[in-house]
Amino acid sequence: NIVKVLGLSSREWSWKLPGEDLSKLGMPEDGLPVVAFAFGGPTVQQITGERDPLPQLRETILALNTGNDDEIPVVASQDLMQVVGKPKEKALLWQDILLAKSILQNT
Predict the structure, then answer these.
(1) Which of 23, 29, 95, 104 has its CA 20 to 30 A from that of 70?
(2) In 3D, which of 7, 103, 12 has the Cα closest to residue 64?
(3) DSSP 8-state class, residue 98
(4) pTM, entire model
């Protein structure tokens, strides 16, 4: 479970769809670190404005521009349906999870 690996409790994360209004997102007032985890190239491109394909966007900390002064870090990863039953893809997903975890620990 990705949430458990990141060390998050049930109240410390939320699932958003790329079509939702993400401009209302911001950094929490209590100072807790934030990271967005985007699954699949089209989603990454939509929420960051990047145009490069997913392989070039992985392993890079991107930014979710919320329209205010807060830039939330974004980690790009494989679409979850591509990972099922594919050990190589699971390994890439694991690398992305570890990048997200390092952002949470070092922010």
Answers:
(1) 95
(2) 103
(3) H
(4) 0.86
pLDDT digits (tens, 9 = 90+) for 51-94: 999 999 999 999 986 777 778 899 999 998 888 889 899 999 99
SS (HEC) of the chain: CHHHHCCCCCCCCCCCCCCCCHHHCCCCCCCCCCCEEEECHHHHHHHHCCCCCHHHHCCCEEEEECCCCCEEEEEEECCHHHHCCCHHHHHHHHHHHHHHHHHHHHC
**Cα dihedral 74→66→106→79 (10° resolution):** -20
CA-CA distance, 55 to 89, in Å (whole number)?
Answer: 12
The phi and psi torsions of 40 (rounded to 5 degrees) equal: 95, 145
Closest CA to 64 of 50, 77, 53, 51: 50
Average pLDDT estimate for 22-40 = 82
Dist CA 107 CA 73 (whole Å): 10
